[in-house]
Amino acid sequence: MKDIYILGIESSCDETAASIVKNGRDVLSNVINTQIDIHKLYGGVVPEIASRNHILNISEVVKLAIKEANMSLSDIDAVACTYGPGLVGALLVGLSYGKGLSYALDVPLIGTNHIEGHIAANYITHKDLKPPFLCVMMSGGNTQIVHIKDYTDFEVLGRTKDDAIGEAFDKVARIMELGYPGGPKIDELGKKGEPNIELPKTHFDNLDFSFSGIKTAVINLHHKNPDIKKEDLCKSFEKKVTEMLIDNTKKAIEQTGINTIVIAGGVSANSYIRNEFLNLKNCKVYMPDMKLCTDNAAMIASAGYYDFINGKISDLSLNAEPDLKI
Ligand code: KG4
Fold it and tell me: Which domain holds residue 32?
């Protein structure tokens, strides 16, 4: 069978990224321009500034991805672009650029779901991974348990009713003045702390999550008891949110009988969470390579490949969908 080369483009938040992936699994280039240093001045992503910087960066990032893969534009079989979920102005930059390229090169455009991209990061890391499996998606914008029935066939079994887990990490870190993005800071500080602070845990009869209660509890504790060690608060917070993730994962295993577990999304870079998932008994657990946990375009090219070979092609009328679901 002929090899298929997909150019992936990602611009849903504060990373402008482009990548070439062969046959959905082999990364030939993976260029990421992050705007973290710009947005940390404001304590979080400023959408308008993100869009403007995507416009400044996108051409160079795509050119570099082609160059690093040692290819030319004419070698590309299709262009896969994130069209949601994310910040609408930011999404539109990558999507419009991708549409232009697909039209100019006369190759298919594949509108790619960012959440499906995070799941596909695991196909790149683990060449043996194939559906079916359960994915615990934990990112800045989403937290859900998904039954991956096939490469393009998904069923969401449960999702957060309020904050995404990454949002909770970032807000807790912000209140403690740890900086942006907060997740990695809590990870580092938590390593030096003890999980000795009692925090509330939400649980539902189904597989849904809620993280706003624990977020508020941590914020209130920090304000009312300035003497509490930040390290202990970080560790206690990590322990409790991990329990929520693991509790629902166990329920999902019981409900579906599937014991291949995949974690995905930016928060899957958390060292405590990774460790606890590895300790799950009677399961085969997969997690993305650290550099593929947060936003990148290789994961978009990989997800786009599976859409492409399954005939899920978009046309030039495709619009950005900020609230796109799986
Ligand atoms: O997946 P992602 O890049 O964004 C979305 O696609 O939504 O995830 C970004 C999130 C941020 O909330 C960030 O704080 C969190 O991932 N994150 C972490 C770690 N690294 C990134 N959270 C906890 N521990 C980490 N080591």
Answer: 5-120+293-309
Task: Give 300's pLDDT tier (boundaries 50, 70, 90).
Answer: very high
Nearest CA to ligand 1 atom 4: 140
- Candidates 114, 115, 169: which one to mutate for ligand 1, based on the most atoms within 8 Å of Cβ? 169
The CB of 314 under 6 Å from ligand 1? The reply is no
* Cα 305 to Cα 262: distance, rounded to the nearest angstrom: 19
Overall domain count for the chain: 2
Q: Is the pTM of this model over 0.70?
A: yes
In this structure, how many other beta carbons lie within 10 angstroms of the beta carbon of residue 49?
Answer: 17
Confidence of residue 140 (pLDDT cuts 50, 70, 90): very high
Closest residue by CA, ligand 1 atom 22? 183
| Ligand 1 atom 23 nearest Cα | 183
CATH code (residue 264):
3.30.420.40
- Do 107 and 165 share a structural domain? no
